[in-house]
Amino acid sequence: MEFVTDYPGYIAAECLYDTGLERLEAEDEDDVVVDDKVCAYWLSDYELWGGLLEETDQAGDLLHAETSRMFIRARLATDARKARVNLAGADPSRRKVIEDPYLHFVTMGFPRTHSWVERVKASGKQQDIEEFALSVMQGREATATRLRQAHLLALFRYLPALVSAVGKPQLESYLTPPDVQAALNAMPRRTRAELIAAPGLAIEDALQLIDTRPMLFDQSFTGVD
After folding, report:
1. First to last CA, the chain
2. I need a surface site. Which of 73, 120, 158, 172 has the fewest CB within 10 A?
3. How many other CB atoms are found less than 10 A from the CB of residue 134?
4. Is the pLDDT of residue 113 over 60?
5. Can you give the pLDDT at residue 225?
C-alpha cells in the first residue's frame, strides 16, 4: 500500500495503457500465467505435475516463471484447471520497480531472460520512477508503452490461445478473432508431448512475437479504440 500512496503517478501510468486492453485478455479460467505468491495446490498434484524444473532457451539463458511453466505442463498433461477463490492478486516486486521503472513497466513485471533484459537496458535510459511515470502520462514513452501493451497481449491473449490450441488441428475460425488466429499461425506448431517436456517453449513462442511480429500488436489490428 505504501507504494500506491508514494508513487501514484506510476500506478496511473500503468492503468492508462492497460485499461483499454483488459477486455482482450483471455477468460480467467483459460489464463496460464500464475504467481506462486497467490496460488496453492496439493503436494500430490505438485509431484504429479513434475514439480518446478529448470529450462533454458536456445541461447542457454534460464527461463523463469517456474509456476506458470509447471501449470502449463499440468494443463496439457492432466487437464488441470485453476479456480479463483477470491479477488486476491499479486504485484511485481515494488523494490525492483523503483530500481528500474522502465524495465518493469514494459514487461509488466514478467521475468524475461537475461539476454533480453540486457538488450532492453542497453537501449533504454535510467530514470527516476516519478520522472518516468510523468513521461509516460505525457505520451513521451512510445516504445515503453508499445512494449507494455505487447507483453499484455502476448501473455494474456496469445499464450492462453496457444495452450488451448495444442493438439487441435485448427481452431474454428469463426470463433477465433483474426489477431489470435494470426498469432497462432505465426508461432511454431508444438506437439502436446513437446510442451509437456518443455512448457517454457510456449511462453517463449508467445513473447518472441513481440520482436518478430510487431504488427500483431498494433492497436488498430486488435480493434482497440
Report:
1. 32
2. 172
3. 17
4. yes
5. 47
The pLDDT of residue 173 is 55
- Distance set, CA 125 to CA 137, 184, 215 (Å): 17, 33, 25
> Among residues 87, 121, 31, which one has the least CA distance to residue 112?
121
Distance CA 210, CA 195 (A): 20
- pLDDT for 222 equals 56
Helix or strand or coil: residue 81? coil
165 contacts: CB under 8 Å, gap ≥ 6: 171, 184
pLDDT of residue 85: 83
Q: Give the rounded distance of the alpha carbon of 129 from its chain centre.
A: 22
Q: Is the dihedral of CA 87, 88, 91, 94 positive or negative?
A: positive
Q: For residue 62, what are the β-bridge partners?
A: 56
Provide the residue count of the chain.
225
- Structural domain containing residue 123: 2-222
Residue 62 three-state SS: strand
Residues 62-69 have a mean pLDDT of: 96
| pLDDT value of position 89 | 65
- DSSP string covering 152-175: HHIIIIIHHHHHHHTT-S---TTT
* Domains held by the chain: number: 1
Residue 191's contacts (CB-CB under 8 Å, 6 or more residues apart) are 166, 167
